Amino acid sequence: MEYIAAIDQGTTSTRCLIFDHGGKIISSAQKEHLQIFPFPGWVEHNPIELLTNSIEVIKKAISLNDFKQGQIKALGITNQRETTVLWNKFSGKPYGNAIVWQDTRTEIICSKLKSQGLEDLFHRKTGLPLATYFSGPKIKWLIENNNEVKQDIKTEQVLFGNIDSWLIWNLTGGVNGGVHYTDVTNASRTLLMNLFTLEWDEELLSTLEIPGNILPQITPSSFHYGEFNLGGESIPITGCLGDQQAALFGQICFDPGNVKNTYGTGCFMLLNTGDKIIQSGHGLLTTVGYQLKDETPVYCLEGSIAITGALVQWLRDNLGINFVPAFSGLFAPYWKPDARGLIIGLTRFANKGHLARAALEATAFQTRELLDAMVKDSGVPLNEIKVDGGMVINELLMQFQADILNIPVVRPTVTETTALGAAYAAGLSIGFWKNLDELRMNWKEDRRWIPKMNSNKRDILYLDWKRAVERSFGWNQSG
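Below the sequence we write its predicted structure tokens.
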């Protein structure tokens, strides 16, 4: 038997999953990493810890099932997107912690660029708004605030990567010949890649004062990146996708009009728009969905919600129960960095059960906002939505989601679609799977929720939600 492994380096943990030809999980291992909050709004990870944990979970997943040498045919990588690392290419040491995608320290940089009238330039070329979410402003902040980076850039010692590039460089040798690559999906999240050329854009680099020589080479998502030496065995790394694009691929959303929603730390909905680049007029992101080698890229519209599963985690850890989730501002479709969390509509009747229910409903309402925006931008009515992520085990949430969307919600038998997507990309590259039709045959439906709510109740609930959201705007006036 032969297998494909995948590293899923996420926001709160790193996992390795090993899949057989049918897409079934044969073995897995997971390890959480430290969340670092130096100041309000700052979120960091230790890049060395992420790398160490990645290697550790690969070894553990392989040892748990006692795989023989040569059985693991390839390795795919999927990663938390936009999380930014700078490191020295001669020593291999990072210049401090990684700045995580949720971090808002670059708000002043983004606001200044907006005040200079540059938002349209960035949006037109990258499909993204000028927001703290993305890597470009994080790189600029690190260059401006780290004297060692400033000095080493002059002598071309500095490398930049999102977590995919950091892992690929280290796993393929690091200072001893490690390759400096990123795939198109991760590159499309930097505010630096031109969506039309799939290359780093010189005008945007100049605007942000970022030297092009620190950037990785952009490749397809299914591509031979290099070899990972594990105990004398060489395993080719042949797939790489940002986590949400990997989930799209793992959910077999290969056709225009296919849509998936992942309920994780945040919530991320992607709509396949085929080879069409649709610039959103309703607060969505335009991004690369995936690119197989020697093929044209597939594009997507994406709606991102900053806090969903992390909201339930916050309630559990801070209020003693398992909530309104603008802790890092609001992402799509509002892009309001000054919004803050809000509890509204309380009466003496309310108890902790109502708060817990409100936390779940907030996720469903925000997903409705994203879906409405996608229909307006694409002009394509959506008939169902495929779901994955940790929260999809909550049947109350899934039924409420179907009710608020008024379309069926479908959960697959394998909900680890992020790792599965990375494995699929890696396996396609080496011929382990011959084509997309073979992958389509692997997808199986586990559960389907059909809308049951009457339209009048749905409209009233959604209107109340919209009114609550408007009241969350403008709370963080201090910046």
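The longest strand covers residues 233-242.
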